[in-house]
Structures are given as C-alpha cells and as structure tokens.
User: Fold this.
Amino acid sequence: MRVRVPLHVSGFWVPHITNNPLTTGSIGAGITLEPLVEAEIKSGSDNRVLVNSVILEHDIINEVKKIVGVNSVNVEITSPSRLGEGLGFSAALSIVVAASALHNLGKPLTLNRVGIIAHEVEVRMMTGLGDVVAELRGGGLVLRLKPGAPGVSELDVIPVRESVSVIPCIVRPGFTTPQMLRDYWHAIKEAGERAFKKFVAEPSFERFLELSYEFSKAIFMNRETDEKIKELLHKHISSGNVRTYFIKKGTLVVVSDDPSEELINTLRKNFSKVLGIFKLFPGGTVMML
Assistant:
C-alpha cells in the first residue's frame, strides 16, 4: 500500500483548544506543497519506520500505535522535509503511521478514519493543530473555517497560480511547535484573529501573502529581522522575482514566481539551511492499495 501526502505551511492561524481532541484545532489559512511525502506501507510483523532510509523513533509513532491498539507498524517514507522544519511533516508522519496501523489490523481504510487518528495524535503531542486536515484535503491554498478533526472541521479552497514557488529556509533551528504555542499564545490569537477576519472578507492568494507577512511581523519577525531580510532580498523584490516572505515558527518562507539561481545562492549564503524549491500542490492525501 502507498500513501502520498502534501506538506503544509500556515501563513496565519488562531488556535482553538477544548477538552476534546476532535474539536480542538485551529482556524486560519495555509498552502499545500510538493514534492510530496511518499510512503510505502508493508505487511508483516516488522516494527520500524524508515524516513529517508534512516530509522525514526518518535513519540508520534508510539501514540498512534497506542490509540489504534497495535504493537507494530512497518513503513518506509521518503520526505523532502524533516520534523521541526515548519512544513507540517509531523502531520504527514501521523497520517502515514495511522494508515499503516489500521492496514495492519485489517480495518477498513478511509481518509477520515486515518485523519481522525492523526489529528488526535497531533493535538495530544501539541505538534500541530490544523496541518492534518489541510494535508488531507489539499488544494493549494486551504482556508480552515472551523477547527477540529476531519468530519468536524470545515475547509474551503482558494484558487492559486501553478507557477508559484516556495523556498523555505531555516532561520531558528530547534524552535518547536509546543515552545511556539507556549511563548506566543496570546499574540498568535490576537494577530491570527485579525488576519483571519480580513482574509475571509477578501479571500485571494495575494491577500494571503499580505496577511501572512503582517502576521509574521506581529509574532516572529521584529523590525530588525524584517529590515535585514528586506535588505538581503531587495534586488529580487524590486525585480518582482520575490513576491513576499514571512516567517512561520523558525522557518523563513520566500515566495517567488520564478526563483533564480542568484536568489537561491543568496539564501544559501545567509541562512543555516535552504530546504529546497517547493511548488503549490492542488491535491490532497492519496492512499493506493
């Protein structure tokens, strides 16, 4: 069995916490990206999760097995991103491992069944509040109108242009989602609600980029950081090569219609890691027997 999952990066969001993981989540907007996370689920009693040929041991995997009630999962994953890079890989991992666990039990598989388990794991681990539903649905630019797991949440999709590229760069290594929520909870809620209301009133890709930048300035990007990035990218912004940029958690997201070699080299020289060139992906998660 094979599973293909897009990655996802939110531009702005508002966390919503209840006493039930299925109604906990977030509202906001984000983009789904390719290259995809590709996984091959294997039958048998072997208990291992390989990510890019390296064995991964993580609490997300153990939590999925606990919820489903299995002792083993066996899956090989190829991913352009790793945990902690701000591109929703923890959600993709939860989706793939949940599919593997249900498959091993011989349970009927649906995206919603897999997604409910994955969402619950993300909420319990506080590794994500809206990535699972966005990655399941896909669409390029996903608007999360109601928080919660699949079947509870409500989503919509805004049209995008296929030509857009996204270049994520690590600017703050090791900055985790639980740490982000703990340190910036009130600021995220205030700025997120403001951005969300503006976006719902005028939903477009251009508005998403504007509001993601505004949200980023209110939370993750002080004036000094913003000015440094703007100066670094001035030539590319002036030429129209870079449409905008924003920071999500510890990752700088540069949006370009046509990323030049000069732009990529500039980013590589100035940031600890450039994750690659991603494209907006109009689809969602696919499971194939």
Summary: The CA atoms of residues 166 and 248 lie 13 Å apart.
